[in-house]
Design a protein that fits this description.
GlbO/GLB3-like, mainly alpha, 134 residues, iron, binds protoporphyrin IX containing FE, 63% helix, Globin/Proto, Globin-like, 8 helices, oxygen binding
Length: 134
């Protein structure tokens, strides 16, 4: 996945702009609450405890938006499409994933421009993760 290009004069990363680690932790925690309450989507997650998956997605998003590179320090290059290959990401899974993410993004209460930047990325990234027809 390519980085969204940032202007060279930008002083602050998007990560800092939206409130740093706390914001991404809140986002992904809320998202996984949605997953936990969605039996169809929940069935795709192999681990009984969603905590480690929550941590991986949190650290990935922190890194993607310009925060600490802890994700790659522990997991290596993201290669997200490849990492999703074991899971049948079809249209229904895509829609459910985005639906829970939408709730989580909305509840952050970000200013509209920041909200749109985050949301547009998630829509684009989710589409690129679909690997199964139907
Ligand atoms: C389109 C619907 C999607 C579905 C159904 C889905 C499902 C899953 C599942 C079942 C896992 C395994 C849980 C784990 O062990 O971590 C996973 C992992 C992960 N997903 Fe997704 N995902 C989707 C989209 C996305 C998107 C859009 C992103 C990024 C913006 C993303 C980022 C990640 C990351 C970072 C991991 C952990 C990778 C690792 O380090 O092993 N996923 N996803």
């Amino acid at each position: 996945m390519n980085e969204i290009p940032h202007g060279e004069l930008q002083q602050q990363t998007f990560y800092e702009l939206v409130g740093g680690e706390d914001t991404f932790r809140r986002l992904v925690h809320r998202f996984y609450e949605g997953v936990a309450g969605d039996p169809d989507l929940r069935a795709m997650y192999p681990e009984e405890d969603l905590g480690p998956a929550e941590e991986r997605l949190t650290l990935f998003l922190i890194q993607y938006w310009g925060g600490p590179r802890t994700y790659s320090d522990s997991r290596g290059h993201p290669r997200l499409r490849m990492r999703h290959a074991p899971f049948a990401v079809n249209r229904a899974a895509h829609d459910a994933w985005l639906r829970h993410m939408r709730t989580a993004v909305d509840e952050l209460g970000l200013p509209p421009e920041q909200r749109a930047q985050l949301w547009d990325y998630l829509v684009y990234a989710a589409a690129s993760m679909v690997n199964t027809p139907g």
